[in-house]
């Protein structure tokens, strides 16, 4: 048996705290000395340790008392789940405040917008390490992707940098070298995301009938592989939009070589701010581009571009339902925390009011022959070229990690192709 002072000291608590717990009925002494001093035994110690554990988790004292007095595993689960929801909401409030402070700081700076380095320095002065800042960006991207996009723009990043860093996992304070290496790795690949000629044609068939010589918009066209296939398969005209002019220059050359220059219209633009009037197209097509906005926002914003009876066709990354291997879960939480299941993506089409919704999971081969296989073959030469550049090697290591993950866990995630009609 030990006294209140001894017990408090052992657990690093104040004597007044234990007396407060006694007044609330949380903890009572097992006995008293002849002089009336409180004495506590091993059972009291174990109870107090549980009280401290629950308090560290943020549970209210009344809830702790109920859990200890009426042991109920389900009740404990409910209490912890409720506390987790409360903590998540508090994190969201903190992130909103952080975002607001960043926005105000940017606005108050006046004149030239602060550079990304200025913001990195500001985070450091505020006590945030680089790892803390990366985590902050990651959590904001997970919970509020649109707000994160707006904040990055307010911080002085170009639209090109924002999209590239969100897709490529490049740190927000990376130098232009990281951007250059990323583009160098993907230059002149058959595809810039998983896909194939067969998958594109299957998606086109799923979209149903189109008018003769349809007007088509392809979003995120890259070097034009899909744009030219759509033009040839439909006899229509394809407006091919991409953010990066060097992709469009390559597309122009390739279209001319195939005699399609009159039916391919390259446009430099941002999928988040499309410059086209409403009801301009019979078919809006996007393979691997939804991540820029997220599926719900894409379905809402791109719908206006479709003529009555027009079709939207999108391919999107998905996660298998059920528990995921820790390695897979961690990777996707980092690169695309909004990823859903295949069925959930199709359900979002229906919830957004699209009709005749159809979908299919793309075959595993779409990841390899046109995409990861040629990409993986060029990595050794790039590692050799940039062996003295740690930042470049970090970008290449991230690409290799993605390839290796797919090889180990092909059944846990993939791409789903979804079409719907307005």
Structural features, described:
Helix content is 55%, strand content 14%. The chain has helices at residues 4-11, 15-23, 42-56, 61-69, 73-109, 116-125, 130-143, 145-154, 159-168, 176-186, 197-206, 225-234, 245-257, 295-303, 326-335, 342-351, 368-385, 390-408, and strands spanning 2-3, 31-32, 38-40, 215-219, 237-242, 264-268, 281-287, 306-319, 355-361, 413-421. Helix 5 runs parallel beside helix 8 (145-154) and helix 17 runs antiparallel to helix 18. A hairpin with a 5-residue loop joins strand 2 (31-32) and strand 3. The protein is elongated. The model has no long low-confidence stretch (mean pLDDT 84). The protein starts with a strand and ends with a strand. By secondary structure, it is α/β, with parallel strands linked by helices. A 7-stranded mixed beta sheet has the order 6-5-4-7-8-10-9, sandwiched between helices. The protein folds into 3 domains: 2-71, Orthogonal Bundle (Multidrug-efflux Transporter Regulator, Chain: A, Domain 2), CATH 1.10.1660; 76-157, no CATH class; 197-421, Rossmann fold (3-Layer(aba) Sandwich). Keywords: DNA-binding, Repressor, Transcription, Transcription regulation. Pfam families: MerR_1, Methyltransf_25. Residues 1-70 form the HTH merR-type domain. It comes from Aminomonas paucivorans DSM 12260. GO terms for molecular function: DNA binding; DNA-binding transcription factor activity.
């Amino acid at each position: 048996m030990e006294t209140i002072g001894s017990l408090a000291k052992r657990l690093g608590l104040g004597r007044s705290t234990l007396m407060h717990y006694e007044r609330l009925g949380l903890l009572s002494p097992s006995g008293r000395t002849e002089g009336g001093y409180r004495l506590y035994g091993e059972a009291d110690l174990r109870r107090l340790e549980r009280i401290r554990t629950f308090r560290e988790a943020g549970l209210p004292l009344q809830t702790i008392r109920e859990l200890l007095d009426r042991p109920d595993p389900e009740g404990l689960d409910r209490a912890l789940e409720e506390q987790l929801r409360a903590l998540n909401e508090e994190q969201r409030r903190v992130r909103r405040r952080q975002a607001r402070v960043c926005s105000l700081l940017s606005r108050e700076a006046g004149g030239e917008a602060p550079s990304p380095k200025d913001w990195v320095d500001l985070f450091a002065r505020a006590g945030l390490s680089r790892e803390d800042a990366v985590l902050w960006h990651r959590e904001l991207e997970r919970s509020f992707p649109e707000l994160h996009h707006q904040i990055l723009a307010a911080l002085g990043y170009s639209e090109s940098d924002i999209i590239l860093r969100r897709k490529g996992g490049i740190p927000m304070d990376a130098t232009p070298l990281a951007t250059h290496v990323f583009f160098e790795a993907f230059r002149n690949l058959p595809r810039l995301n998983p896909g194939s000629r067969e998958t594109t044609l299957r998606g086109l068939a799923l979209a149903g009938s189109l008018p003769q010589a349809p007007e088509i918009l392809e979003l995120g066209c890259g070097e034009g592989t899909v744009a030219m296939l759509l033009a040839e398969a439909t006899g229509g005209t394809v407006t091919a939009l991409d953010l990066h002019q060097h992709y469009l220059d390559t597309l122009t050359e390739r279209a001319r070589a195939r005699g399609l220059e009159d039916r391919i219209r390259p446009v430099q633009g941002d999928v988040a701010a499309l410059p086209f009037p409403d009801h301009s197209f019979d078919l809006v097509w996007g393979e691997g581009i939804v991540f820029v906005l997220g599926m719900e926002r894409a379905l809402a914003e791109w719908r206006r571009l479709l003529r009555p009876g027009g079709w939207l066709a999108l391919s999107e990354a998905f996660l298998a339902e059920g528990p995921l291997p820790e390695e897979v879960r961690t990777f996707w939480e980092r690169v695309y925390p909004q990823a859903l299941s295949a069925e959930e993506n199709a359900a979002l089409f229906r919830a957004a009011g699209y009709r005749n919704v159809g979908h299919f999971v793309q075959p595993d081969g779409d990841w390899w022959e046109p995409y990861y296989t040629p990409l993986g073959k060029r990595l050794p030469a790039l590692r050799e070229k940039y062996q003295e550049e740690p930042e470049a090697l970090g970008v290449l290591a991230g690409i290799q990690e993605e390839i290796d993950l797919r090889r180990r866990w092909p059944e846990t995630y993939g791409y789903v192709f979804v079409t719907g009609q307005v």
